[in-house]
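**User:**
If convenient, please work through this fold.
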Amino acid sequence: MTTSVLPDETADHFATARQVADAVLFEGYVLYPYRASAAKNKLRWQFGVLVPPCWGTESAEHSFQRTECLMEPRSGARLSAELRFLHAQRRTVQRLCPAGGFETVEELELPDRVLVPWDEGSEERVTLVADISKLTGEGVTVPFTRPAREETEPVHDADGKLVGRLVRRCAEVQGQVRLTASELDGPYAALRLTATVENTSGWQPDDTGADRDAALPHSLVGAHLLLGLSAGSFVSMTDPPEWAGGAVAACRNEHAWPVLAGADGRADVVLSSPIILEDHPAIAPESPGALYDALEIDEILALRTAALTDQEKREARGTDPRAAEVIELADTMPPEVLERLHGAVRALREVTGPGPAAPDDLTPDVPGLRPDTPWWDPESDRSVDPVRDRITVDGHSVGAGSRVLLRPGLRRTDAQDLFLQGRTAQVEAVLHDVDGGVHLAVTVEGDPGADIRREQGRFLYFQPDEIAPLEDA
């Protein structure tokens, strides 16, 4: 295996980007309620899993990632690359037998935790540094190997007496990182960088019908790349300058997506992630620590974790040291830290222009306003009525009770849109926001919980260009 030491300046820039990269690396590592027995933790590691080539041909997962982006290096610049991934290590639990020796068991009870079999993740890195001039042509290829190993850890009870041991086994993993660069056509001094990460392990499933669980110890889990220029800059793939639009569109990225990373305003570091991110992603400063379950909100996770029973917390502590840290974090979080998770204002902007001066004394004679009603109460302004208001869409009057066809996707901002495309729904209300925008609150037809949603006022919201009227109410 060939690795290189990263230059100090690049290492510092990578350190800033690594905060987000850590979230990518450990996304889905262990999900709430943080117990190995939970159904959510039976099928783990959904992002960036590069499986052995023989297994990838028989599954929906892949053995490689391909990253392409544009860069504008200065003379004499060097490119630094850091591949990061988790190497799965299979942990079994053994109890000390009265007659000596150890026997494998499904669980081992201790006063503060319950130890169970589990796949842990050991963080691995492969680094390399190359002059930009050496990346043209065949480029630079760095193979790497992580050998098989076995480790044991003694387990003692509260009195320090040996009661068992943990046995951790890792299978051999092999792979390679390949970097190439080519000049762009035209007058621009820019290069197209191609970075490929491959799992080259020779493991093959046996005749007994090995499944994904058998392939994971030979896989690169959560694989992603950090790329850095010693001099020069990368071009944003999501917001490129006009001259680079065509070249960016021609880049081919497979199973990964590169974004500018590191400090905001810099363009010398790229994070190529299996999770689609925006340029300069950052961890919210309010987040108290890693919770490993980004599908939830920190506040919800913290509250629900703190509400687990003592037995559930013992099982979580015995599942994984990282799960134990989450339990400790939720149990010791100060109220002022938890309060910050409830919401934050990042920026303010004026959404209305200057209007007429308000009268000194608002009276019922002022049209639409009721001064004796709080501003947040719908009855405070009778000029709008969500239940009775109607709008015109494609020549049809649409309001509460109208049937519509859902066709989201114009903004493509919500993965749930994939499941709602083409569904029929009933409009429950027409809402107006302070910017003058219109939103339709709907319930999906065929939803068994529609009555409950109406009772609680929990609807799905669409703008007029995201629906098609089926008929007038």
